[in-house]
Model the fold of this input.
Amino acid sequence: MAPLSGALRLLYEGKSKRIYAAGPGEALMVFKDEVTAFNGRYRDEAPGKGAYSAALTSRMFELLESYGIKTHYICYAGGNAVKIRLADVIPLEVIVRNYVYGSMKKRLPLLKEMDKLEPPVVELHYKDDRLGDPLLHPRDPVAAGILAEDELNAIEDLALRVNNALSSFWRDRGLTLVDFKIEVARDNSGFMVVDEITGDTMRLIDPEGRHYDKEVYRRTRSTELLLQSYVRLLEAAGNPSRRC
Amino acid sequence: MAPLSGALRLLYEGKSKRIYAAGPGEALMVFKDEVTAFNGRYRDEAPGKGAYSAALTSRMFELLESYGIKTHYICYAGGNAVKIRLADVIPLEVIVRNYVYGSMKKRLPLLKEMDKLEPPVVELHYKDDRLGDPLLHPRDPVAAGILAEDELNAIEDLALRVNNALSSFWRDRGLTLVDFKIEVARDNSGFMVVDEITGDTMRLIDPEGRHYDKEVYRRTRSTELLLQSYVRLLEAAGNPSRRC
Done:
């Protein structure tokens, strides 16, 4: 594909990526070579991270589609760019937890880190950096008109289907999916998974408890160690096949 | 009853009350003449508040028992003291919301203050001042072993029965129960409502939107205005009948 030109119109800029308009109903999701943690308090350049993230996200969306799960993914545009369908993103972060970790343990210290959660827990958070993406009561989005009554179950079902696909994929590669975050959008025919699926949004550990996710950076602040993990993730996952 | 002597053994001290041992399996819950807000950041002397709180709590527990809801209440010991049964308190705050207000609106600003919630929302929070009593995912207490699987529904049922009793009681007196907090304990036969039920734990407004609850203090920091509201609440509720 043609290199990104300054003529592309920026639609959105987040901490880890920018979205540019790219034809009717389509966009380019361009990942930054940056890592941030603790809600932007830590921030470092991480050359190469954008490309690993774009390729892994593409691979993960191809995986989900092979399970019949709709996503906003069109094709991998090479480098740090992914071509996507534009869609109405719901302002929620959907977190699925297979084991106790992170903010779950923080809000309830009686929980034991890495205790298995059966069934997995699906959390809805309000996507708002200023508020720190607060956990919601499951009924809040309905009360706020963000979700219709029947969509609440539909989102939970979707999240659990994504969990099955991702858990099994990484289990086959020797890694345990501790938890992950997705974002969801809707079009006329229902929900689709959007945003990214990378080591920034999944927590993945090997049998020795080593992390292959952003935890590496949170703990060490080393972008080098982080990138090593992300290279390994992509090697294990394989490259995306749908190029554009 | 005899005046409280220094010989009573203090079992627990919270922000608004102290619990003293008082015979086998029983205790005295003694309310302080103090008001605190914003998790203890504001604190003022409020002479008389202890007695209003003790009398109103007693009246409220008598109301709940008239609905067949078990509580830890034995009798009103006069002044600022209530005689209670000792019980294993579950470290949760159970919040029932009939309308959007307070921390619910804070975590999801898309909600409209005083929007009616149908059905009412039952929230479980972890009781921990240092953590700011964080909202839990409904399944967290089960994962942490605080509640058994079937107790989760039992607590929600209990909370909604308390809501029916309190809402209807205050509606008859021209006030709307916006939300309230209870704490719950268990004994051999099941759950009971414990702690206090006062203007500190219920949000009550009249048709003009005037508050008869701790909101008065949060907004004005006037203990005088707060006490005026609490006197009115007790006048409207009537005194407890079970004296000891």
About this structure: The helical segments of chain B are 49-66, 103-107, 140-143, 149-171, 215-220, 223-237.
